[in-house]
Structures are given as C-alpha cells and as structure tokens.
Amino acid sequence: MTRTVSPLTSWRCLHGVLLGLTCLAGLLSSTCALAGDVRVEVIGRDGAPVSGVAIVLEMPAGMAHGSVHHTARMDQQNRRFIPEVLVVESGTSVEFPNSDSVSHQVYSFSSPRRFQLPLYKGVTRGPVTFGQPGLVVLGCNIHDEMVGYILVTDSPFHGATDASGTAHISAVTAGTYRVSAWGPRINDGGGTLAATLAVSGDAPQSLTLRLHEPLRRNPSPRPGRVDWDGY
Ligand SMILES: [Cu+2]
Prior knowledge:
It contains one helix and 17 strands.
C-alpha cells in the first residue's frame, strides 16, 4: 500500500528529526533545556476575570539567562495609558507614542526610573531604558487622572492578564517558580498574590488565582508627588 506524504508532513518530519538531533546535541553539552507554556488566570471575588494584572515567574536560584535588548511601547489613548500595566524585563527600552489628539507630559517619580518627557503629541518619545527592577508609576503633568504602571522584572518569563483575565507565557524553562501577580486594584496581600508552579517541558501548565477581597475602586499606588527640583 502506497502512503502519500504531503510536503507539509514531510517538512514536519524533517523538522522533528532536526529538533531531535539538536536536542540530542544539546543534552550532550547540557544546553538543551526543556520548556513549556504557562497560562495564568486571575478571577475576582465576584467571579469576573481581572485584567491588567502583571504576572511574573520569578527565576529559580541558579537559573541564568543572557542580556536583554527588548523594546516595548506604552501608548496614550483617550487620556489613558495603554496598556495600564506593562511588564518588561530589566534592560528593556520603552517607546512612548501619543495616539491622543491632546498633548501629554509623561513622568515618573519612582525610584527605579525617574524621568520626564517633554510635552508632546503626534510623535513618539523615548525610548526610555528601564535597567532596575521595581515598579515605575507613570503620571501625566497635564492630566492628574492619568496613571500607568511599568513593572520591571529580572525574569524573562512574564506577562499581563488580558480582558479574559488570562496571561499566556510561552517557552518557560522547566523548573519550579514562584509566581507573583500584582495589580493596581488588587486588595489581597497588599496588591500581590503568590503561588508556586512546577513547569515541565511535557505539557502546558495552568494556574488560577482567586481573589478573596473585592477590587479597589481606585488604583494604588498613585503617581508620586512631583518635585521638579528632583530632576
Ligand atoms: Cu496627559
């Protein structure tokens, strides 16, 4: 009996063989790390999904990774920072476009990264490089109600929950991680939830975090008080 093999199938076969050979070579040189995908869901006390929660899989002791040259964007739309919560690895350069029809003047007075951008619209400012881990709270000098957050982490395994309350983090190196979840409206644990998750390369892992306290009405923390002499 003749079996027809489509070009796609044969490519997959070849790809699988190459992957196997690569892993075999890697095992011999101890560089072939298994990796798996992780899905973290955050559910509020009312059962509704919670979006805009920063998820970080903190690096296990001894697990190292290379230097970072990532870029990211923090936009402004309808007098709001988009996204409200951005998670980046330390060393990432963040650009600040302004998609609004009004001008904004973005600043941070947080100790991991103090900066201020000139008043602008219609152009992209930055990039601003975030080298130190920690929480950077963004404000706008024109619109006091604007608040945004850049959470800087040393871990390459991070994300933020979307409208369905879910964060997808792909290709996580196998290991046991402390998973932390921070959101500006989370009341539980002072704003941070934590759990332990074992990641293997065999199958995707899922973790559900449920809040016990109702969400705050207003985000916390707010931008630091601006002392212009500090710049
Ligand atoms: Cu503004």
